[in-house]
Amino acid sequence: MGQLNRSTRNIRWIESHLRIPEGRDVGKKVKLRGFQKRDIKKIYDNPYGTRRAILSYGRKNAKTTFSAFLLLLHTAGPEALPNSQLYSAAQSRDQAAILFNLAAKMVRMSPSLSEYITVRDSGKQLFCSELGTLYRALSADASTAYGLSPCFVVHDELGQVKGPRSQLYEALETAVAAHDNPLSIVISTQAPTDNDLLSVLIDDAKTGVDKRVILSLYTADMDADPFTVKTIRQANPAYGDFQNADEVKAMAQDAKRMPSREAEYRNLILNQRVQAHNPFVSRSVWESCGGEPAPIGGELVGVGLDLSARADLTAAVITFERDGLRHVHPFFWMPEDGLIERSRGDRVPYDLWVQQGHIRTTPGGSVDYEYVVADLAEIFTDAEPAQVQFDRWRIDVFQKELDRAELDWPMEPHGQGFKDMSPALDTLETELLNGRLRHGMNPVLTMCAANAVVTRDPAGNRKLDKHKANGRIDGMVALAMSLSCDLEQSNSLGDWLNDPVVIGATA
Fold it and tell me: Same structural domain for residues 264 and 358?
């Protein structure tokens, strides 16, 4: 008989030495399912060598239990390296304890492993004295993960990380560089938004550029009926097996009966990239209007202007009609100082968007409206603003810069309360649902759209609000105001394009 390949050897070891730690089959020997064997083959038979494996499916498909199988495989099994360090990383101590407890139960249940592995409950550690291997469970609220040198890491439920960065993830991923063939297992239900760390990793893996990264993504089609068994099975390979089918179908019926629960159901059960809150505009509708806008050029435009606090986002959104469509051109400004800190604090890649040209910066620690005015004046050399609708907050500071530049734009105040914002949202909603907008999927505006939720007054009037404290919605507010502009109104400057104004400020 020839030598076994790695995956077959590892599958046999798991099924020979490990037992089910919890549930109806507790104590029985592990019998890996077909999808689990396929994932093991992907990881260990990759001809390029696997550096990172991303495994993503819905809840209750034994993701964490499968992680514990692989962890023990590298602690005392055929994948173990003498004197190596192994870690699991989770976003909370409770989540970190789950994987450790499952692995510890498997050790105690296994006659072969319990003889060689010591369970250290107080430190959430497993130690194999014969090989010198040490596993430890870490959480994001631990003091630090720097100074470690792991060769194997499990990132458990990485989809819980909000934004594109995680200090714990970065610390562990940079630490494995000390080893020749490190392996990271990322195992999680999908994150809610494109901007979250897990989504960034999945989208990069989909490109196939790095052959050392493998991806197993079980997710339901976005346009499929979300409540059918066929759709549920797409994201849940264990459905009807060790995943309770009746429980999942009950969740589906709850979501169907109560729309407020649909987003959570789609994210956790169907493993779709859907936010658990109910935004003003759904992801699918927003993407349906994501075509490239026509370039600005010689027409009347509406402008929505949302000024910022000291270090926040200032937004100006320009819209115009052409060929029966409303074309959207958003512009954003932030202060240059503290940009990296704000990116980390909000968990949003403002610094990357600056490099890509989606956000403009002004010198200093607060947005300097002199630069905003100069930039807009340059933009308006190719278009005539019919109206500039603005939020009154800080407009006095902005107006001083207009006066200094001797600019007389057609400024119109736009209230931010229910009375004024409700008709603006009606217009925006109508244009979105009818597919008449073209916004080009600008990432900053898309972030604002994802953050914007609706609040209502007793009369049913609506206005936009944030679904989280640090979520920016300035671009959506400016877009709604821009679409409220009267594009038939004549401009007070006369022939704007033929007689441009020269200003003293430069950007």
Answer: no
The beta-strand segments (E) located in 57-97 are 85-90
- pTM beyond cutoff 0.85: no
Q: Is residue 506 part of a domain?
A: no
Which residues face 332 on adjacent strands? 315
**What is the phi/psi pair of residue 183, to 5°?**
-135, 130
Tokens, residue 388 = 């500039």
The residue count for the chain: 507
Examine the domain organization and report whether 465 and 317 are in the same domain. yes
> Given this model, what pLDDT does residue 469 score?
53
Domain around 229: 222-274
> Of 17-21, 112-116, 453-457, 481-485, which gets the smallest average pLDDT?
453-457
Q: Is the pLDDT of residue 497 over 60?
A: no
CA distances from 294 to 388, 438, 470 (A): 20, 8, 32
Averaged pLDDT, 275-286: 77
Q: Which tokens in the block code for residue 384? A: 């005539």
Asked if the model's pLDDT at residue 502 lies above 50, the reply is no
Alpha-carbon gap, residue 136 to 100, rounded angstroms: 8
- Is residue 363 situated within a structural domain? yes
Number of domains in the chain: 3
Q: Would residue 60 count as lying in a domain?
A: yes
Q: Do 325 and 435 meet the contact criterion of CB atoms below 8 Å apart? A: no
User: What CATH number is attached to the domain comprising 378?
Assistant: 3.30.420.240
Q: Does residue 253 sit in the same domain as residue 108?
A: no
> Among residues 105, 79, 65, 59, which one has the least CA distance to residue 13?
79
Domain match, 73 and 144 both = yes
Nearest CA among 266, 280, 506 for reference residue 405: 506
Do both 308 and 174 map to the same domain? no
Grouping H, G, I as helix, E, B as strand and the rest as coil, residue 449 is: helix
Of 482, 483, 475, 507, the closest CA to residue 314 belongs to 475
Mapping DSSP onto H, E and C, the string for 395-422 reads HHHHHHHHHHCCCCCCEEECCCCHHHHH
Q: For residues 44 and 121, state if they share a domain.
A: yes
User: pLDDT (tens digit, 9 = 90+) per residue, 307-342?
Assistant: 876 667 899 999 999 999 999 999 999 999 888 988
Report the alpha-carbon distance of residue 43 to residue 71 in Å, rounded.
13
